[in-house]
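Write out the 3D structure for:
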Amino acid sequence: MTGIDFNAPPGHFALKSVLQELFTVFDRRIHNLKDIDEKNFGKTFPVGEDSYLENLLRTLSSLCEHCLPSVLATLIHWYKKQLKLIEESGEGMDDKRLVLNYIFCTALNEVLPQLHFFPTVCDDSVSYLVTLAFKEVAYTDHSSYGSKYNSYLMVTERFTEVLGVLSHTHGAVIQRAFMNALNELRKENPITPYTMNCIIALLMAMKFYRIKVGIFYYK
């Protein structure tokens, strides 16, 4: 196993080992696209049926009770790096980006429940994740993804789940981001069908958020 310091303290060694193995598994899945089921994207990456990956994620979640800030920063750094590599390669970019987002959200949903141990230390990471999630759940026309639209919808659902997990500790941040996005849409006059679709998509994204959204009146 390369890149691991066997003389490191046990906690550091365990964390680095798990992350390295997890990223190895993730990288294989991102670049192995031949078996993607475009009609049911979730069946392509059934985490619950992969006991090895599931155990890695559970182990990482347990370790995050002690080092979540470092893990979140590492996951985000890995995500940004993968996005750059995908953009540079050009080949199968849309497919790889869908897979990357799905896998990234899967990892986040495992570790973010530990945020209550670090209520403010992770604010920068949380801010990035909230901004990313709202960007990814924004309305996209069906034609943009064609036959992959169902896969896109599954990925957006994963991002709304991320918002749902974050709402337990950073509900005010999510509510503020939601209101800012909604107010920007309400400024448009007249309200077009596209704007209405954007508003509907935004409201749908909040179904995992643990507050009731009131009735908004559009100008």
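The first helix runs from residue 10 to 31.
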